[in-house]
Design a protein that fits this description.
Blueprint lengths: L1 E4 L4 E7 L2 E8 L22 E3 L14 H4 L14 E6 L12 E7 L17 H5 L3 E5 L4 H5 L9 H16 L5 E11 L1 H10 L8 E5 L9 H15 L5 H5 L3 H17 L3 H4 L1 H6 L16 H6 L7 E7 L4 H4 L4 H4 L2 H10 L6 H8 L5 H27 L4 E6 L16 H4 L3 H4 L10 H17 L13 E5 L5 E4 L3 H6 L2
Parallel strand pairs: 2-4, 6-7, 6-8, 8-9, 9-10, 10-11, 11-12
Antiparallel strand pairs: 1-2, 2-3, 3-5, 5-7, 12-13
Length: about 500
Protein backbone atom coordinates (compact mmCIF):
# COMPACT_ATOMS: atom_id res chain seq x y z
CA UNK A 1 0.00 0.00 0.00
CA UNK A 2 1.01 3.61 -0.51
CA UNK A 3 -0.12 6.91 1.00
CA UNK A 4 -0.26 10.24 -0.86
CA UNK A 5 -0.99 13.72 0.50
CA UNK A 6 -3.57 15.62 -1.58
CA UNK A 7 -4.88 19.16 -1.14
CA UNK A 8 -7.75 17.87 1.01
CA UNK A 9 -6.18 15.01 2.94
CA UNK A 10 -4.17 11.82 2.67
CA UNK A 11 -5.29 8.85 0.58
CA UNK A 12 -4.13 5.24 0.71
CA UNK A 13 -3.95 3.12 -2.44
CA UNK A 14 -3.32 -0.53 -3.24
CA UNK A 15 -0.35 -1.83 -5.23
CA UNK A 16 -0.75 -4.59 -7.84
CA UNK A 17 1.93 -5.66 -10.30
CA UNK A 18 3.92 -2.49 -9.78
CA UNK A 19 0.94 -0.14 -10.24
CA UNK A 20 -0.75 1.70 -7.37
CA UNK A 21 -4.46 2.44 -7.73
CA UNK A 22 -6.18 5.19 -5.75
CA UNK A 23 -9.93 4.92 -6.32
CA UNK A 24 -12.87 7.16 -5.46
CA UNK A 25 -10.96 10.32 -4.50
CA UNK A 26 -13.37 13.29 -4.23
CA UNK A 27 -12.37 16.29 -6.31
CA UNK A 28 -15.51 18.31 -5.48
CA UNK A 29 -18.23 18.33 -2.83
CA UNK A 30 -21.34 16.16 -3.33
CA UNK A 31 -23.61 18.06 -5.78
CA UNK A 32 -26.77 17.63 -3.73
CA UNK A 33 -28.62 19.41 -0.95
CA UNK A 34 -27.51 23.03 -0.88
CA UNK A 35 -25.07 22.30 -3.74
CA UNK A 36 -27.70 20.84 -6.12
CA UNK A 37 -27.55 22.40 -9.61
CA UNK A 38 -24.69 24.66 -8.50
CA UNK A 39 -21.13 25.06 -9.74
CA UNK A 40 -18.79 22.41 -8.31
CA UNK A 41 -17.27 23.32 -4.95
CA UNK A 42 -14.15 21.97 -3.24
CA UNK A 43 -14.63 18.85 -1.09
CA UNK A 44 -14.46 19.02 2.67
CA UNK A 45 -10.93 18.22 3.91
CA UNK A 46 -10.57 15.06 5.97
CA UNK A 47 -8.34 14.06 8.86
CA UNK A 48 -6.21 10.96 8.94
CA UNK A 49 -5.76 8.71 5.92
CA UNK A 50 -8.67 7.95 3.62
CA UNK A 51 -8.70 4.46 2.09
CA UNK A 52 -8.98 4.71 -1.70
CA UNK A 53 -9.54 1.04 -2.40
CA UNK A 54 -12.96 1.05 -4.10
CA UNK A 55 -14.61 3.07 -6.85
CA UNK A 56 -16.70 5.92 -5.47
CA UNK A 57 -20.39 6.60 -6.14
CA UNK A 58 -21.44 7.20 -9.73
CA UNK A 59 -23.54 10.15 -10.89
CA UNK A 60 -27.31 9.55 -11.05
CA UNK A 61 -28.11 7.92 -14.38
CA UNK A 62 -30.44 5.41 -16.00
CA UNK A 63 -29.40 1.95 -16.98
CA UNK A 64 -28.80 1.32 -20.65
CA UNK A 65 -31.69 -0.26 -22.57
CA UNK A 66 -31.62 -4.03 -22.24
CA UNK A 67 -30.33 -4.54 -25.76
CA UNK A 68 -27.18 -2.56 -24.89
CA UNK A 69 -26.67 -3.84 -21.33
CA UNK A 70 -24.39 -6.71 -22.37
CA UNK A 71 -22.56 -4.54 -24.90
CA UNK A 72 -21.90 -1.48 -22.70
CA UNK A 73 -21.44 -2.38 -19.01
CA UNK A 74 -22.24 0.61 -16.81
CA UNK A 75 -21.94 0.02 -13.05
CA UNK A 76 -24.25 1.96 -10.77
CA UNK A 77 -22.67 2.73 -7.38
CA UNK A 78 -25.01 4.53 -4.93
CA UNK A 79 -24.02 7.55 -2.88
CA UNK A 80 -23.96 11.33 -3.02
CA UNK A 81 -20.18 11.80 -3.24
CA UNK A 82 -20.20 11.17 -7.01
CA UNK A 83 -17.73 13.86 -8.09
CA UNK A 84 -14.73 11.63 -7.64
CA UNK A 85 -11.82 10.36 -9.69
CA UNK A 86 -9.38 7.45 -9.83
CA UNK A 87 -5.60 7.47 -10.27
CA UNK A 88 -3.31 4.66 -11.42
CA UNK A 89 0.41 5.34 -11.11
CA UNK A 90 3.59 3.30 -11.55
CA UNK A 91 5.29 5.46 -8.94
CA UNK A 92 4.84 5.64 -5.22
CA UNK A 93 5.40 9.01 -3.53
CA UNK A 94 8.92 10.42 -3.80
CA UNK A 95 9.94 7.63 -6.21
CA UNK A 96 11.39 10.13 -8.69
CA UNK A 97 14.62 11.53 -7.18
CA UNK A 98 15.28 13.71 -10.22
CA UNK A 99 11.96 15.46 -9.72
CA UNK A 100 10.70 14.73 -13.24
CA UNK A 101 7.12 13.60 -13.33
CA UNK A 102 5.55 11.10 -15.70
CA UNK A 103 3.11 12.06 -18.46
CA UNK A 104 -0.54 12.08 -17.37
CA UNK A 105 -3.66 10.93 -19.21
CA UNK A 106 -7.12 12.02 -18.00
CA UNK A 107 -10.06 9.99 -19.34
CA UNK A 108 -13.51 11.56 -19.86
CA UNK A 109 -16.08 8.81 -20.37
CA UNK A 110 -18.85 8.77 -22.95
CA UNK A 111 -22.50 7.81 -22.68
CA UNK A 112 -24.52 10.48 -24.56
CA UNK A 113 -24.11 12.84 -21.57
CA UNK A 114 -26.54 10.54 -19.68
CA UNK A 115 -24.56 7.37 -18.88
CA UNK A 116 -21.11 6.16 -17.96
CA UNK A 117 -18.57 6.71 -15.19
CA UNK A 118 -14.90 6.36 -14.41
CA UNK A 119 -15.72 3.04 -12.73
CA UNK A 120 -16.48 1.14 -15.95
CA UNK A 121 -14.10 -1.87 -15.84
CA UNK A 122 -13.04 -1.29 -19.44
CA UNK A 123 -11.55 2.07 -18.42
CA UNK A 124 -9.04 0.69 -15.95
CA UNK A 125 -5.92 2.84 -16.10
CA UNK A 126 -3.72 -0.07 -15.02
CA UNK A 127 -2.39 -0.74 -18.53
CA UNK A 128 -1.40 2.89 -19.14
CA UNK A 129 0.34 3.02 -15.75
CA UNK A 130 2.07 -0.28 -16.56
CA UNK A 131 3.51 1.50 -19.61
CA UNK A 132 4.76 4.58 -17.77
CA UNK A 133 1.79 6.97 -17.74
CA UNK A 134 -0.19 8.21 -14.75
CA UNK A 135 -3.82 7.60 -15.72
CA UNK A 136 -6.86 9.34 -14.24
CA UNK A 137 -10.55 8.58 -14.87
CA UNK A 138 -13.28 10.93 -13.69
CA UNK A 139 -17.01 11.17 -12.99
CA UNK A 140 -19.11 14.22 -13.83
CA UNK A 141 -22.78 15.12 -13.52
CA UNK A 142 -25.01 13.64 -16.22
CA UNK A 143 -28.44 14.21 -17.73
CA UNK A 144 -30.62 16.85 -16.14
CA UNK A 145 -28.23 17.20 -13.17
CA UNK A 146 -25.32 18.13 -15.42
CA UNK A 147 -26.67 19.54 -18.67
CA UNK A 148 -30.32 20.68 -18.56
CA UNK A 149 -30.98 24.38 -19.13
CA UNK A 150 -32.57 25.13 -15.75
CA UNK A 151 -33.36 28.81 -15.15
CA UNK A 152 -31.78 29.76 -11.84
CA UNK A 153 -28.81 27.41 -12.28
CA UNK A 154 -25.51 27.80 -14.13
CA UNK A 155 -25.42 26.09 -17.50
CA UNK A 156 -22.98 23.31 -18.43
CA UNK A 157 -22.59 21.99 -14.91
CA UNK A 158 -21.18 18.70 -16.18
CA UNK A 159 -18.46 20.56 -18.08
CA UNK A 160 -17.71 22.65 -15.00
CA UNK A 161 -17.22 19.36 -13.15
CA UNK A 162 -14.73 18.21 -15.79
CA UNK A 163 -12.84 21.49 -15.44
CA UNK A 164 -12.79 21.09 -11.64
CA UNK A 165 -11.35 17.59 -12.06
CA UNK A 166 -8.63 18.92 -14.38
CA UNK A 167 -7.82 21.64 -11.84
CA UNK A 168 -7.50 18.90 -9.20
CA UNK A 169 -5.07 17.10 -11.52
CA UNK A 170 -3.07 20.29 -12.01
CA UNK A 171 -2.80 20.83 -8.25
CA UNK A 172 -2.32 17.24 -7.07
CA UNK A 173 -0.96 14.91 -9.73
CA UNK A 174 2.70 15.61 -8.94
CA UNK A 175 2.19 13.86 -5.60
CA UNK A 176 1.23 10.73 -7.55
CA UNK A 177 4.35 10.90 -9.73
CA UNK A 178 2.74 12.81 -12.62
CA UNK A 179 3.86 15.94 -14.42
CA UNK A 180 1.14 18.65 -14.42
CA UNK A 181 2.94 20.18 -17.41
CA UNK A 182 2.35 17.06 -19.56
CA UNK A 183 -1.36 16.28 -19.35
CA UNK A 184 -3.27 14.58 -22.15
CA UNK A 185 -7.06 14.66 -21.90
CA UNK A 186 -8.80 11.89 -23.85
CA UNK A 187 -12.37 10.73 -24.25
CA UNK A 188 -14.86 8.87 -26.44
CA UNK A 189 -18.31 9.79 -27.75
CA UNK A 190 -19.78 12.36 -25.32
CA UNK A 191 -16.33 12.29 -23.70
CA UNK A 192 -14.73 13.23 -27.03
CA UNK A 193 -17.32 15.97 -27.54
CA UNK A 194 -16.33 17.18 -24.08
CA UNK A 195 -12.65 17.03 -25.05
CA UNK A 196 -13.15 19.17 -28.15
CA UNK A 197 -15.32 21.59 -26.19
CA UNK A 198 -12.62 21.92 -23.54
CA UNK A 199 -10.02 22.29 -26.30
CA UNK A 200 -11.99 25.24 -27.69
CA UNK A 201 -11.89 27.05 -24.34
CA UNK A 202 -8.08 27.51 -24.11
CA UNK A 203 -8.07 26.70 -20.39
CA UNK A 204 -4.37 25.86 -20.15
CA UNK A 205 -5.19 22.73 -18.14
CA UNK A 206 -3.90 20.17 -20.66
CA UNK A 207 -1.31 20.01 -23.39
CA UNK A 208 -2.52 17.20 -25.66
CA UNK A 209 -5.99 15.94 -26.51
CA UNK A 210 -7.47 12.76 -27.97
CA UNK A 211 -11.04 12.78 -29.27
CA UNK A 212 -12.44 9.35 -30.15
CA UNK A 213 -15.73 9.36 -32.08
CA UNK A 214 -16.79 12.86 -31.17
CA UNK A 215 -15.85 16.28 -32.47
CA UNK A 216 -16.75 19.93 -32.24
CA UNK A 217 -20.23 20.11 -33.77
CA UNK A 218 -22.33 19.44 -30.66
CA UNK A 219 -23.67 22.48 -28.79
CA UNK A 220 -27.30 23.31 -28.10
CA UNK A 221 -28.82 26.72 -28.51
CA UNK A 222 -30.13 27.71 -25.05
CA UNK A 223 -33.68 28.14 -26.35
CA UNK A 224 -33.58 24.65 -27.87
CA UNK A 225 -32.22 23.24 -24.61
CA UNK A 226 -35.06 24.95 -22.76
CA UNK A 227 -37.60 23.15 -24.97
CA UNK A 228 -36.25 19.87 -23.60
CA UNK A 229 -36.37 21.16 -20.03
CA UNK A 230 -39.98 22.30 -20.44
CA UNK A 231 -41.04 18.91 -21.80
CA UNK A 232 -39.40 17.05 -18.92
CA UNK A 233 -40.90 19.52 -16.43
CA UNK A 234 -44.39 19.16 -17.91
CA UNK A 235 -44.26 15.38 -17.57
CA UNK A 236 -43.04 15.72 -13.99
CA UNK A 237 -45.73 18.28 -13.12
CA UNK A 238 -43.07 20.76 -12.09
CA UNK A 239 -42.01 24.25 -13.11
CA UNK A 240 -39.03 24.32 -15.52
CA UNK A 241 -36.70 25.94 -12.96
CA UNK A 242 -33.75 24.88 -10.85
CA UNK A 243 -35.74 25.55 -7.69
CA UNK A 244 -38.58 23.23 -8.74
CA UNK A 245 -36.25 20.47 -9.95
CA UNK A 246 -34.20 20.69 -6.74
CA UNK A 247 -37.31 19.61 -4.83
CA UNK A 248 -37.41 16.37 -6.83
CA UNK A 249 -35.35 13.27 -6.17
CA UNK A 250 -33.00 12.45 -9.08
CA UNK A 251 -34.57 9.00 -9.17
CA UNK A 252 -37.92 10.61 -10.05
CA UNK A 253 -36.41 12.70 -12.84
CA UNK A 254 -34.38 9.98 -14.57
CA UNK A 255 -37.23 7.88 -16.07
CA UNK A 256 -38.83 10.99 -17.57
CA UNK A 257 -35.48 12.30 -18.79
CA UNK A 258 -34.87 8.89 -20.36
CA UNK A 259 -38.23 8.84 -22.14
CA UNK A 260 -37.69 12.30 -23.63
CA UNK A 261 -34.15 11.39 -24.69
CA UNK A 262 -35.46 8.27 -26.45
CA UNK A 263 -38.02 10.36 -28.35
CA UNK A 264 -35.40 12.88 -29.45
CA UNK A 265 -33.17 10.05 -30.70
CA UNK A 266 -35.97 8.17 -32.47
CA UNK A 267 -37.51 11.19 -34.20
CA UNK A 268 -35.21 14.23 -34.11
CA UNK A 269 -37.86 16.79 -35.01
CA UNK A 270 -36.41 20.33 -35.14
CA UNK A 271 -39.90 21.79 -34.93
CA UNK A 272 -40.44 20.15 -31.56
CA UNK A 273 -36.96 20.07 -30.03
CA UNK A 274 -35.10 22.83 -31.88
CA UNK A 275 -32.62 22.45 -34.72
CA UNK A 276 -29.51 22.16 -32.56
CA UNK A 277 -31.05 19.41 -30.41
CA UNK A 278 -32.30 17.47 -33.43
CA UNK A 279 -28.95 17.77 -35.22
CA UNK A 280 -27.19 15.83 -32.47
CA UNK A 281 -30.01 13.43 -31.73
CA UNK A 282 -29.36 13.94 -28.01
CA UNK A 283 -31.68 15.68 -25.56
CA UNK A 284 -29.10 16.99 -23.09
CA UNK A 285 -25.72 18.27 -24.23
CA UNK A 286 -23.41 21.25 -23.65
CA UNK A 287 -25.19 24.56 -24.25
CA UNK A 288 -24.03 27.73 -25.96
CA UNK A 289 -24.27 29.88 -22.86
CA UNK A 290 -22.40 32.92 -24.22
CA UNK A 291 -19.95 32.76 -21.32
CA UNK A 292 -18.17 29.42 -20.98
CA UNK A 293 -19.14 28.34 -24.52
CA UNK A 294 -19.58 31.33 -26.83
CA UNK A 295 -19.26 29.47 -30.17
CA UNK A 296 -19.61 25.95 -31.48
CA UNK A 297 -16.33 24.25 -30.58
CA UNK A 298 -15.37 23.46 -34.18
CA UNK A 299 -15.83 27.14 -35.10
CA UNK A 300 -13.71 28.31 -32.17
CA UNK A 301 -11.02 25.75 -33.04
CA UNK A 302 -10.98 26.88 -36.69
CA UNK A 303 -10.45 30.43 -35.41
CA UNK A 304 -7.35 29.32 -33.51
CA UNK A 305 -8.59 28.17 -30.11
CA UNK A 306 -6.55 25.23 -28.84
CA UNK A 307 -3.84 25.61 -31.49
CA UNK A 308 -1.14 25.09 -28.85
CA UNK A 309 -2.63 21.70 -27.83
CA UNK A 310 -1.62 18.66 -29.90
CA UNK A 311 -4.72 16.85 -31.19
CA UNK A 312 -5.28 13.20 -32.10
CA UNK A 313 -8.82 12.73 -33.42
CA UNK A 314 -10.71 9.98 -35.20
CA UNK A 315 -13.73 7.75 -35.62
CA UNK A 316 -14.79 4.18 -36.36
CA UNK A 317 -15.74 3.27 -39.92
CA UNK A 318 -19.32 2.29 -39.13
CA UNK A 319 -20.17 4.23 -35.97
CA UNK A 320 -23.96 4.23 -36.15
CA UNK A 321 -24.37 0.48 -36.66
CA UNK A 322 -24.25 0.18 -32.86
CA UNK A 323 -27.60 1.97 -32.61
CA UNK A 324 -29.34 0.29 -35.55
CA UNK A 325 -28.22 -3.32 -35.84
CA UNK A 326 -28.66 -4.94 -32.38
CA UNK A 327 -31.91 -3.03 -31.82
CA UNK A 328 -33.51 -4.35 -35.01
CA UNK A 329 -34.28 -0.81 -36.15
CA UNK A 330 -32.24 -1.33 -39.32
CA UNK A 331 -34.60 -4.05 -40.54
CA UNK A 332 -37.63 -1.75 -40.26
CA UNK A 333 -36.19 1.12 -42.29
CA UNK A 334 -37.06 2.18 -45.82
CA UNK A 335 -35.31 4.74 -47.98
CA UNK A 336 -38.23 7.10 -47.28
CA UNK A 337 -37.75 6.78 -43.51
CA UNK A 338 -34.02 7.28 -43.94
CA UNK A 339 -34.73 10.56 -45.72
CA UNK A 340 -37.20 11.73 -43.08
CA UNK A 341 -34.96 10.99 -40.08
CA UNK A 342 -31.80 12.42 -41.61
CA UNK A 343 -33.66 15.56 -42.73
CA UNK A 344 -34.71 16.12 -39.12
CA UNK A 345 -31.04 15.94 -38.14
CA UNK A 346 -30.19 18.69 -40.61
CA UNK A 347 -28.74 16.46 -43.34
CA UNK A 348 -29.19 18.22 -46.72
CA UNK A 349 -32.22 16.82 -48.54
CA UNK A 350 -30.26 15.64 -51.59
CA UNK A 351 -27.64 13.65 -49.66
CA UNK A 352 -29.56 10.39 -49.09
CA UNK A 353 -30.07 10.03 -52.85
CA UNK A 354 -26.40 10.79 -53.46
CA UNK A 355 -25.38 8.15 -50.91
CA UNK A 356 -27.79 5.71 -52.57
CA UNK A 357 -26.06 6.38 -55.90
CA UNK A 358 -22.67 5.67 -54.32
CA UNK A 359 -23.94 2.55 -52.51
CA UNK A 360 -26.70 1.02 -54.67
CA UNK A 361 -26.60 -2.38 -52.96
CA UNK A 362 -26.91 -1.15 -49.37
CA UNK A 363 -30.03 -2.06 -47.42
CA UNK A 364 -31.85 1.03 -46.04
CA UNK A 365 -30.57 0.33 -42.53
CA UNK A 366 -26.99 0.21 -43.76
CA UNK A 367 -27.56 3.40 -45.73
CA UNK A 368 -28.91 5.14 -42.63
CA UNK A 369 -25.88 3.94 -40.65
CA UNK A 370 -23.51 5.32 -43.28
CA UNK A 371 -25.20 8.73 -43.50
CA UNK A 372 -25.49 9.29 -39.73
CA UNK A 373 -21.98 7.95 -39.16
CA UNK A 374 -20.79 10.73 -41.43
CA UNK A 375 -23.21 13.39 -40.17
CA UNK A 376 -22.50 12.93 -36.45
CA UNK A 377 -18.95 11.63 -36.45
CA UNK A 378 -16.70 11.44 -39.53
CA UNK A 379 -17.50 14.80 -41.15
CA UNK A 380 -17.33 16.76 -37.85
CA UNK A 381 -14.02 14.99 -37.12
CA UNK A 382 -12.68 16.13 -40.51
CA UNK A 383 -13.92 19.70 -39.93
CA UNK A 384 -12.39 19.86 -36.45
CA UNK A 385 -9.09 18.36 -37.60
CA UNK A 386 -8.90 20.65 -40.63
CA UNK A 387 -9.66 23.72 -38.54
CA UNK A 388 -7.07 22.78 -35.92
CA UNK A 389 -4.39 22.04 -38.52
CA UNK A 390 -5.12 25.14 -40.60
CA UNK A 391 -4.80 27.36 -37.53
CA UNK A 392 -1.33 25.97 -36.84
CA UNK A 393 -2.11 23.10 -34.47
CA UNK A 394 -0.29 19.77 -34.62
CA UNK A 395 -2.99 17.32 -35.69
CA UNK A 396 -3.27 13.59 -36.36
CA UNK A 397 -6.28 11.56 -37.54
CA UNK A 398 -7.15 7.87 -37.31
CA UNK A 399 -9.93 5.54 -38.43
CA UNK A 400 -10.77 2.29 -36.62
CA UNK A 401 -11.83 -0.18 -39.32
CA UNK A 402 -11.70 -3.64 -37.71
CA UNK A 403 -15.17 -5.18 -37.93
CA UNK A 404 -16.72 -7.07 -35.04
CA UNK A 405 -18.48 -10.30 -36.03
CA UNK A 406 -20.95 -9.85 -33.16
CA UNK A 407 -24.58 -8.96 -33.96
CA UNK A 408 -23.65 -7.47 -37.34
CA UNK A 409 -22.02 -4.54 -35.52
CA UNK A 410 -19.14 -4.09 -37.92
CA UNK A 411 -16.68 -1.31 -37.06
CA UNK A 412 -19.22 0.31 -34.74
CA UNK A 413 -19.22 3.08 -32.15
CA UNK A 414 -17.19 2.31 -28.99
CA UNK A 415 -15.59 -0.80 -30.50
CA UNK A 416 -12.10 0.71 -30.30
CA UNK A 417 -12.22 1.20 -26.52
CA UNK A 418 -10.91 -2.21 -25.47
CA UNK A 419 -8.07 -1.83 -27.97
CA UNK A 420 -7.07 1.67 -26.83
CA UNK A 421 -7.02 0.59 -23.19
CA UNK A 422 -5.39 -2.76 -24.09
CA UNK A 423 -8.14 -4.27 -21.97
CA UNK A 424 -9.86 -6.82 -24.16
CA UNK A 425 -10.33 -9.08 -21.13
CA UNK A 426 -12.63 -6.50 -19.51
CA UNK A 427 -14.44 -6.12 -22.83
CA UNK A 428 -15.40 -9.81 -22.67
CA UNK A 429 -17.26 -10.71 -25.85
CA UNK A 430 -19.70 -7.80 -25.65
CA UNK A 431 -18.82 -5.60 -28.61
CA UNK A 432 -15.88 -7.51 -30.01
CA UNK A 433 -17.19 -11.07 -30.10
CA UNK A 434 -14.76 -13.95 -29.41
CA UNK A 435 -11.02 -13.75 -29.96
CA UNK A 436 -10.49 -10.09 -30.89
CA UNK A 437 -7.01 -9.42 -32.31
CA UNK A 438 -4.59 -8.68 -29.48
CA UNK A 439 -2.01 -7.37 -31.95
CA UNK A 440 -4.37 -4.55 -32.89
CA UNK A 441 -4.76 -3.66 -29.21
CA UNK A 442 -0.98 -3.66 -28.83
CA UNK A 443 -0.60 -1.19 -31.70
CA UNK A 444 -3.41 1.18 -30.74
CA UNK A 445 -2.47 1.27 -27.07
CA UNK A 446 1.16 1.90 -28.02
CA UNK A 447 0.13 4.81 -30.28
CA UNK A 448 -1.99 6.46 -27.57
CA UNK A 449 0.80 6.01 -25.01
CA UNK A 450 3.39 7.37 -27.41
CA UNK A 451 1.20 10.41 -28.07
CA UNK A 452 0.98 11.13 -24.34
CA UNK A 453 4.72 10.64 -23.87
CA UNK A 454 6.16 12.24 -27.03
CA UNK A 455 3.32 14.18 -28.63
CA UNK A 456 3.45 12.01 -31.76
CA UNK A 457 1.39 8.81 -32.21
CA UNK A 458 3.74 7.50 -34.90
CA UNK A 459 2.42 8.54 -38.30
CA UNK A 460 2.38 11.67 -40.45
CA UNK A 461 0.37 14.66 -39.38
CA UNK A 462 -3.02 15.55 -40.84
CA UNK A 463 -3.44 18.54 -43.10
CA UNK A 464 -6.55 19.58 -45.06
CA UNK A 465 -4.86 19.02 -48.43
CA UNK A 466 -3.42 15.50 -48.09
CA UNK A 467 -5.83 14.23 -45.35
CA UNK A 468 -3.53 11.43 -44.17
CA UNK A 469 -5.45 9.05 -41.90
CA UNK A 470 -4.04 6.05 -40.03
CA UNK A 471 -6.51 3.22 -40.57
CA UNK A 472 -6.28 0.66 -37.76
CA UNK A 473 -7.27 -2.84 -38.83
CA UNK A 474 -6.22 -6.44 -38.55
CA UNK A 475 -3.84 -7.89 -39.62
CA UNK A 476 -2.17 -4.59 -40.54
CA UNK A 477 -2.66 -0.84 -40.32
CA UNK A 478 -2.08 1.59 -43.17
CA UNK A 479 -2.03 5.28 -43.98
CA UNK A 480 -4.88 6.17 -46.34
CA UNK A 481 -5.25 9.59 -47.89
CA UNK A 482 -8.79 10.92 -47.68
CA UNK A 483 -10.58 7.61 -47.08
CA UNK A 484 -14.20 7.46 -48.32
CA UNK A 485 -13.48 10.63 -50.26
CA UNK A 486 -16.52 10.35 -52.55
CA UNK A 487 -18.90 10.45 -49.60
CA UNK A 488 -16.88 13.09 -47.75
CA UNK A 489 -16.98 15.46 -50.70
CA UNK A 490 -20.78 15.35 -50.70
CA UNK A 491 -20.63 17.43 -47.52
CA UNK A 492 -18.45 20.13 -49.07
Amino acid sequence: MAVVQTSYGKVRGRVRDGVTAFLGIPYAAPPFGAHRFKEPRPPEPWDGVRDAFEFGPTAPKPGYPRVFASLLPDPDIPGDDCLNLNVWTPRVPDASPDGEGLPVMVWIHGGAFRNGSGAVPLYSGHTFARDGVVCVTINYRLGVEGFANLPGAPLNRGLLDQIAALEWVRDNIAAFGGDPGRVTVFGESAGAMSVTTLLSLDLGLFHRAVAQSGAGSIAQDPDDALLVTKEIAARLGAAPTAEAFAALDPAAIIPVQNAVAAEVAALPDPGRWGATTAAGGMALTPVLDGELIARRPEDAIAAGAGRDVDLLIGYTTEEFRLFLMPTGIADALTDELVGAVTAGMGVPADLPAAYRAHHPDMAPGELMAAIITDSLFRIPVHRTAAGHAASGGRTWMYEFAWRSPNQDLGACHALELGFVFDNLVAEGEGLTGPNPPQGLADRMHRAWTRFAVDGDPGWERFDPAARAVMVFDDPADEIVRDPHSLDRKLWD
